[in-house]
Specification:
The structure is a homodimer. Chain A is built from ten helices and no strands. By secondary structure, the first copy, chain A, is an all-alpha fold. In chain A, helix 2 crosses helix 3, helix 5 packs across helix 6 and helix 5 packs across helix 7. The longest helix of chain A is centred in the middle third of the chain and has 26 residues. At the A-B interface, helix 9 and helix 10 of A face helix 9 and helix 10 of B. Chain A binds a DNA duplex through helix 4.
Chain lengths: 206, 206
DNA sequence: GCTAGAACTTACTCCCAGTAAGTTACTCGG
DNA sequence: CCGAGTAACTTACTGGGAGTAAGTTCTAGC
């Protein structure tokens, strides 16, 4: 049986790592972090558990590898949309829109990303934060674009605003996946832009 | 030895439940969800593990009991501040301020609340959502107060805004606890209010 | 005192992350 | 073609923690 369906020969490390990562992404996406055992992943790939440990170190390590890759895709997608926009106002909207569209198009990816809360304890927390920091940085850049140059906000304010936007978009994404009839990405992006655009111009240095 | 330090007699159920809950709150707060074992809690209370299972059903059950209680306190505090405000603009600021102050004053409580992400998978997720829903509802109420009556936003828009604010405040809270020198609650509340106040008035029915 | 039931315990099972130590297949120099 | 070296991979385990079955002890009320 195994000989017909899976004449699994040895692969070199890079190929095997990719194979494991893909399976892990799928299974984590389906069953969540807690619901997935390393034996599950191993069985799915058709490989024994210690091999995964050799390549990824731990369950957290494997999960973080998935997380980093998915975050990377998402970040690229959003960043591209932002960079392609003609002006600051469009950039804000385009960024939101790209975010929500990506999440609609990659639902299993989002399951993994949401589960990152799983890692709020443990040594993996820093890695998770790093991966989020890239987003915060992108948002902060956009915020600086939006704030009028003649009334510069201080760093704390930039951070506060960037964190707020990051938190808002994440919660909206979670809400949309759990909602029976979520409003379309365009509507959410539009509303969010309406909510934030004015305020970005009137930030006062307290 | 046990007779001198802990002449632990039997207590009636309600008293024991309280005792367990308090210990659990403390230990979860110190070590997080993953880092806490049921044996730890049992040992701390001076009771055996099955008793805890009899009263709280499961580890998730115990954690959720802590969560619900802390959320309740927090919600009450914020709701009081909002209700005491003279007008909508003040209510927004007062609500944010109460939120961030409470979290400053109850750091171990917040550790537990943050760990709720832990429960994003499993049957506990709905309970977590319910407890969060109360907040969303409070925020939605405030949002309705803020939106001018002559240009009513639709329900989707109210939800989008409420979810955004909930997400923003949660992420800001997490950021502040992890930050070495977080800005004071007043500053965060002020900045957030500046960011959102204008937008709340210009919501358009797309 | 005696009994009914609540409060509580001992002593397990099972599952899963992680590991020690070994085995098999590919590769490259001769 | 052949042996040696190494990368790829496995079997068979440990340890720890969630959850449970089956009792045992205290106490309240008669």
């Amino acid at each position: 049986m195994t000989s017909t369906t899976t004449p699994k020969r040895r692969r070199d490390r890079a190929a095997r790592e990719r194979e494991i990562l893909e399976a892990a992404e799928r299974i984590f996406g389906e069953r969540g972090y807690q619901g997935t055992s390393m034996d599950d992943v191993a069985a799915q790939v058709g490989v024994s558990k210690p091999l995964i440990y050799q390549y990824y170190g731990s369950k957290d390590g494997l999960f973080l590898a998935c997380l980093a890759r998915l975050r990377g895709h998402l970040l690229d997608t959003v960043a591209d949309a932002v960079m392609a926009a003609a002006n600051a106002e469009d950039a804000l909207y385009a960024g939101f829109l790209a975010w929500f569209r990506f999440l609609d198009e990659h639902p299993q990816a989002w399951s993994v990303l949401v589960d990152e809360g799983m890692l709020s304890a443990g040594p993996a927390a820093e890695a998770t934060d790093e991966v989020r920091a890239a987003f915060i940085e992108l948002i902060a850049t956009m915020v600086r674009m939006n704030v009028p140059a003649d009334r510069p906000a201080d760093d704390d304010e930039i951070q506060i605003v960037a964190q707020s936007i990051s938190g808002a978009t994440e919660r909206l994404a979670i809400w949309r996946t759990r909602s029976a009839n979520p409003p379309p990405p365009e509507k959410v992006a539009r509303t969010l832009q309406d909510l934030l655009w004015q305020g970005l111009h009137t930030l006062k240095s307290s």
